[in-house]
Write a structure and sequence with these properties.
This protein is mainly beta and 122 residues long. It is built from no helices and 11 strands. The strands form 2 sheets. Strands 2, 4, 5, 6, 9, 10 and 11 form a 7-stranded mixed β-sheet that branches. The radius of gyration is 13 Å and the shape is globular.
């Protein structure tokens, strides 16, 4: 089991920024593909972004392209999601996830974090 601890959510006005973090104590963190998903009220969970083990490859949902940036620091065993130009439609619970093979937007995680609420007011 991989424990993922997510932080950084909160309330922000439209146009603002937030940075989400997801950390693990697992020494094998650098072996995992990492990703972010989100679930808005009354909607299914959806892919946001993913990054491969080295950080050399990443992919984004169309809704995140140009505004969100996923990155990782393997020495700190942490993955980040920098979210800029936030919109009310970005309001959701954001989940960190870890998995094996990097497959871009088709990323299928094996492990999930606890989720953090992001609320964007208009």
């Amino acid at each position: 089991q991989v424990q993922l601890v997510t932080s950084g959510g909160g309330l922000v006005q439209a146009g603002g920024s937030l940075r989400l973090s997801c950390a693990t104590s697992r020494p094998t963190f650098s072996l995992y593909t990492m990703g972010w998903f989100r679930q808005a009220p009354r909607k299914e969970r959806e892919f946001v972004a993913a990054i491969n083990w080295s950080g050399g490859a990443s992919s984004y949902a169309d809704s995140a392209k140009g505004r969100f940036t996923i990155s990782r620091d393997n020495a700190k065993r942490t993955v980040y999601l920098q979210m800029n130009s936030l919109k009310p439609e970005d309001t959701a619970v954001y989940y960190c996830a870890a998995g094996g093979d990097y497959s871009g937007s088709s990323f299928k995680p094996d492990y999930w974090g606890q989720g953090t609420q992001v609320t964007v007011s208009s």
